[in-house]
Amino acid sequence: QVQLVQSGAGVKKPGASVKVSCKASGYTFTDYYIHWVRQAPGQGLEWVGWINLNSGGTNYAQKFQGRVTMTGDTSTTTAYMELSGLRFDDTAVYYCARSGYGCSGGSCYHYYFGMDVWGHGTTVIVSS
Amino acid sequence: QSALTQPASVSGSPGQSITISCTGTSSDVGAYNSVSWYQQYPGKAPKLMIYDVVNRPSGISNRFSGSKSGNTASLTISGLQAEDEAAYYCSSYTHSGIVVFGGGTKLTVL
User: Fold this and answer.
1) Closest-CA residue in chain A for B53?
2) Is A50 on the interface with B (CB under 8 A)?
3) pLDDT of residue B1
4) What is the distance between the terminal CA atoms of chain B, rounded to a whole angstrom?
5) Which residue has the higher pLDDT, A39 or A112?
């Protein structure tokens, strides 16, 4: 079945970097985007960015530009998100999520900006 | 890019219908039919309920429906059940190629 398995939780110091992995299985990796979404404790969902696993193209939310890098390894069907210059308010659960594929009105198609399969989340705590 | 605007909370009794609104701008919700809705239970990953404004993924109950008028999208849940109590988030594609989420709505089933 389609699943995304993320790396384990971690504690980082302010200023450090974290790299979260997202291992995909059960589908053609390069046919989809992977989105990264985070959720601070008690807060809502915040979109971080996406990567097109076919072209390697990326698009990041403005607030993360310069600090985030998203990559994909097609040989291992694993997507990565690296966030540098960690601050206390980067403490959050980080989710990877796959873009979608659905059928409507007799036709099936990819929709790249909705997310139909989610990883279980990776908790990143920034603490001194 | 500002977050989409959702009510912080809504409530309803079992069997009733409720609607959650999601207001954006002419650069996101109003411009594209790429609005999605997600359900999230505490401590769990979000689950896609609606994509492209009106479409339900396979396995999602037809009690959930989506619509859009102008810059506002809506999620309607009919025949409310206790298991529907959760947080709901909308998201939209935007003109700059990014995605923006709403602040989330806590649904309470009375």
Assistant:
1) A114
2) yes
3) 67
4) 35
5) A39
